[in-house]
Each structure stands twice: as structure tokens, then as C-alpha cells.
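Q: Give me the 3D complex with pyridoxine-5'-phosphate.
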Amino acid sequence: MGKPSSRSGTFKQGLAVVSATGHLRLGVNVDHVATVRNARGGAHPDPVRAALLAAEAGADGITAHLREDRRHISDGDIERLMSQLRVPLNLEMAATDEMLKIALRYKPHAVCLVPEKREERTTEGGLDVAGQHNHLAPYVRELAGAGIRVSLFIEAELSQLDASKSLGAPVVELHTGLYCETPVGPARAKQLKRLEVAAAHAAKIGLECHAGHGLGFDTVEPIAAIPTLAELNIGHFLVGEAIFVGFAPAIARMRAIMDAARAGLST
Ligand code: PXP
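A: Here is the predicted complex, encoded as C-alpha cells.
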């Protein structure tokens, strides 16, 4: 996400240079602030207020997923995020004509294309970039043509990375859900290895690599220590933890764990 400009919609960034000691960006996802708001149909708690607070607390950017069914973030939230945020907005969306129109209207700093199924509780898997090349290609082209940085949310599979590269997307985000859900032990270690190998491959083929989904204080450290990752996107855990310690302290602690993992790389 990098250095913010006066308005997220006008923020631009070239390919990030990522080094072992480089700053690992934290994108805070505010979807579930909207989930709580929508439970009562009113205006409180406001995800835009949460986003502004997150930026003050150390978030490098804000992520919001505008779903087809608008179950949490609304179109109005995106409009207000675009006008009020002073850090970049990463809009998560499905590759549909409706969402493309919205992205082209608001022109957020970044769009992360995700698979979306109506009946799922959350984004369950990565995009099948290899299998959906022809469907995704025009979306990547149009978004990139409008100056939006496009990322593709994928499983940590080399074939998906190669397909993302051939599609012309500059960024991929690796799905960390399976790693987070796997009990600690050899099976978790295997999932971590899979992510490490994928992140190394991304750097090798010239893709900026992000990661996210399901991360919390107990799972983030080994992920933050992967040297070729440039950004983590974290939401549900932080919003949940805010109930106990407050949103800003939860973000600050996440930031500290990430920074310590990065500092470990340089020693
Ligand atoms: N990255 C992507 C692409 C996502 O779809 C989500 C969930 O909206 C996240 C990151 C954040 O996941 P979580 O809310 O579990 O931290």
C-alpha cells in the first residue's frame, strides 16, 4: 500500500521492493464492524470510523469486501471510505460486471479479486486463476487500465501463481485460511511450508505477494517472517479482539508481532 496521498482514490504505487528487513504492511479489514452494524440495521458501529481509527493505530491501509449480497460493507461505506481515508483502500470484490462498474467509479488504490459464493460464510478458497483465465482477463485489464492495482486471491499453488503472472496481475494474495485452521504440529508446519514456497516463487516470477484470511495473534508470526511478503490483510480477529481490548490496542499488538517477526529476519 505504501505512502498515502491526500485521498486513497488518487494514491498510486509501483511494484514494491520487498526485502528481508522491509516493512510488512498491515491492511485492516473492517467488514465485520459493518456486520455488527447491520445486525441492527442502524448506523452504529460505523466501519468508516473504525477505518479511520485503524489508520491512526498503525494500519497501512484499509480493506473492505463489497459482496454481491451487501451482507456487511455497503456501497455508501465505499463512497465514504474513498472520501475520508488518508491511507490506501483495498477493495475486495468478485469479478462481476456490477463490481467492475463500482470499482471504476470509485477507483480505489487496489482491487483484490476474490471468488464469491452466496451461501458461503466467508471467502472459502482462492480464485482458480488457471481455470478462469478467459473470464478474469478482461477484469484485470480494465481495472489495471484505470490505474487500479490488481491483486488475485489464490491458494498457495505454483500453478495459480504462474497463471496470475500470465494474466498480468502485479499482485497476488495467498489464502492463509487452511494454515490457520490446521492444528499446531506437523500438519500446520506443512501448510506453512506451502505458503513459504509460494511466496518465494511469487518473488522469483516478479509478483508482489500478500497474504491473509483467518490470521490472529497466535498464527501471524511465522507468516510475517516470510521475507518476500509485502502485506497482510487481517480483519475478523481484530474486530473480535476489539471487544476485549479495544480496536486500536488490538491493531497495535498485531503490528508489534509483525514488526518483531521482521526484525528477527535481520538479526
Ligand atoms: N484477504 C481476503 C482476500 C479476504 O477475503 C479476507 C476476508 O474478507 C481477508 C483477507 C481477511 O480475513 P479475516 O477477516 O479472516 O482476517
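A quick observation: The first strand starts at residue 25 and ends at 29.
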